[in-house]
Amino acid sequence: MLRMLGITKSYGAVRANRGIDLVVPPRTILGLLGENGSGKTTLMNVLFGLVSPDAGTIVFNDHPLAGHTPREALAAGIGMIHQHFMLVPAMTVTENVMLGWDAAGRWLRPAAVAERIRAASHTYGLDLEPDARVGALPLGGQQRVEIVKAILRGAELLILDEPTSSLSPPEVSGLLHVLRRLRDEGRSVIFISHKLGEVLDVCDEVVVLRDGAVAGRTRASDTDRAKLARMMVDRDVSAPVAREGGAAGAERLVVADLAANDATGVERLGGVSFSVRSGEVLAVAGVDGNGQAELVDVIAGLRRPTRGHVFVDGADVTGRGVTGRRQAGLAHVPADRHTTGLVADMTVTENLAFRDCDGPPFRRGPWLDFGAMRAAASERIARFAIRVGGPDVPARTLSGGNQQKLVLARELTRHPRVLVAAQPTRGLDPGATRFVIDEVLALRASGGAVLYVSTELEEALIVADRIAVMYRGRFAGVVRRDAVDITRLGLMMSGALTESPDAAALYGRKAP
Amino acid sequence: MTVGAPASRPRVELAAVRALAPPLLAVLLAFAVTGVLIVAAGKNPVLAYWSLAHGAFGSWDRIAVGLNRATPYALTGVGIALCFRARVINIGGEGQLALGGLAATWVALHMVPAPRPVATLFALGGGVLAGAAWAGLAAGIRLKRGVHEVLATLLLNFVGLLIVSEALQGDLGEPGAGFPQSPLLPNASWLGRLVAGTDLHVGVLIALAAVAVAHVALWRTPFGFRLRILGASAPAAAYAGISPARALVSVMLLSGGLAGLAGAIEVLGVHYRLIDGFAHGFGFNAVAIALLGGLNPLAVLPAGLFFGFLETGAVAMQRAVGVPTPLVAVIQGLTMVFVLSAMGLTAGRRRV
Ligand SMILES: Nc1ncnc2c1ncn2[C@@H]1O[C@H](COP(=O)(O)OP(=O)(O)OP(=O)(O)O)[C@@H](O)[C@H]1O
Ligand SMILES: [Mg+2]
Prior knowledge:
Oligomer: heterodimer
Helix content of chain A: 25-40%
Number of domains of chain B: 1
Number of strands of chain A: 22
Shape of chain A: globular
Bound molecules: adenosine-5'-triphosphate, magnesium ion
Strand order of the largest sheet of chain A: 6-7-8-3-9-10
Largest sheet of chain B: none
Helix content of chain B: over 70%
Structural class of chain A: alpha/beta
Number of domains of chain A: 3
């Protein structure tokens, strides 16, 4: 169905794609794997006509594609679903599907389009209501709107670049189900993910990229996690995580009856109390959208609480701004790296310094010390293995995972007393995920307190001393590491079970 | 990964060339299109442009006039560039400039007699304070009443110009002049000449210094860094702990002060008195200059010079060839259109 031969693309000195051959047969889900910065997104951008390759040929359904635009790619039958959805939240599903669709005709026929959406939704199990407002849909639903858009525009090959990285586990299994239906109806899918389990679960074939070249291809049935991981990286990332037992110390982060509303005045956080001690990691699990983002924002000082208090090392920081909290020792990895965690148009150096430019070492007298900033940047790039042409390139040119590493490098190297991290491993490859987990545990071992928000239960179980499950803005339960019961956690996430935790679970070792 | 300066130098120069090309091309295109208009008006464009160039650069005197003219442009433009960097849309340069001139006049006429540099400095300081206050008022309206600064600064322009007229009708006016203007200011308050025998005043040096300071402030200080972050992404600015209100107030005070300084320099260095309507056109041209300079303080300087010399040359062009001066406004307008189009094409590649 699709043949890409010898695709080559360089950005200056960075060789993002080096003679990649990719063949996608009909009725196939092809998994594209590779470390952060190995060239996956670049290859897909070439295919969809967003980037023109330096060399190489593309043949799709026996038609050559060269120098094509995304519009022509679409017309040829290739659809791409970006990680950032291109939807208008205020419009309905039908209106979004009609938007910019030539084949919808000169006159808008919403009823006819709605009918087709309903039909497609039925065929592929998309579960979409044509009259629903897109802004009111959960992320998984918005993603299905993108899928139906692509299908109705005639996409025979669908590209999904890390579609599962911001979905909750039930949404992920729903998406995988949709992908299988698409294949069974005769379409093909290119599926990019860093989660080997998903890839093995849904894909028929797997292609692994390393350093911009194909490192291996295999049938999914002939391989396993360990083999794939070895294909992606030379080193072994499967060694068990070293967790020192270290006893938790004094309370570092205390949250008392914290509540907050969203922009429209709806309560999203309904009075949460807990504490995290020195040398301890409290993971917050739960389906995305149950108040985790609000909890993190309020603790970080980005959102005002409607009631409640936040203490860092005994000091009430509720009334302080972001800077005051940072000076108190609070580090924050925000969930949204694109517009909050980073300034895409600024250089890597500036991005690694922009939360710390109010004091030494980056500020000397009235001046910014660019020498110090650049030195620190080079050091962090090396330590976090950030794949980048140099400290002076704009952050925008980094691959998704490397942008996330940038944020982590800035926040972790400050040696914070308290780290509040929202989805810190989103978009990271297994090796980098492992690195971040090791860093978080190192912070824990050196006496830091960590609040670790994750939708990945697996990851929470690795890092956490206690796991809290959030449901509708409250803790549905807090479980100590030694008493974890997966079924119980699952029930809490779905709201079927609410336990009022004892003081030991809420506040660590002992009641305050 | 080498970080050495030598390795990165050629790339920097290339980037500079790439940044310069669009405005230069835009200027050339604007001249070409206007040339067609001149032909259409039945005049000889080569002759017209020659007399324009001659009027602008034909003698030391002409050059002095052009530099004087460019001075308030560069001063006001650089302040506006800083505002725009932080996404603060200050279009109140005209009012701020007018009040700066008014305050300088008032100080010069009312202060106790003092020797030259002292009197001049006080008058200039009055201009700075008045301009800053006027811009600060707009910032206050924005913060307290939620009126967008575009509207607040625009409306305060009208108020500012009317205050100047009002003052010239009243106390500050020259009795029996027949025209709304102040009496001649005491000699001690005048700006010194830079080159004896020409009109060139030391305000040009002040503008140069201001541009240099703005450049350093934007690229080398935490303050400028904060402005750039704020302009690039509001959520990232919040995450960095930057207060948008504080940034708004400080950048407005700064740019208002620069505009007020420009007004004071016009009064103390060119007219030696306050004349009704002296600020006319400066504010909006300064916005154009800031954009033409790509919001880079250093690049605002050539942009300001371009506008200054264009306008002094225009008078000569009209006299020599009979091409009406408004055609110069056409050149300015076309340059802006072309520059903004070019910036749209290269959007996303600009350094923030
Ligand atoms: N516009 C660009 N300018 C310069 N370099 C770029 C640009 N886009 C990508 N690169 C570089 O090309 C390489 C491959 O990037 P790409 O985004 O394809 O990686 P990826 O495999 O998608 O990684 P990830 O898993 O982190 O998303 C990276 O080193 C990246 O820095
Ligand atoms: Mg990618």
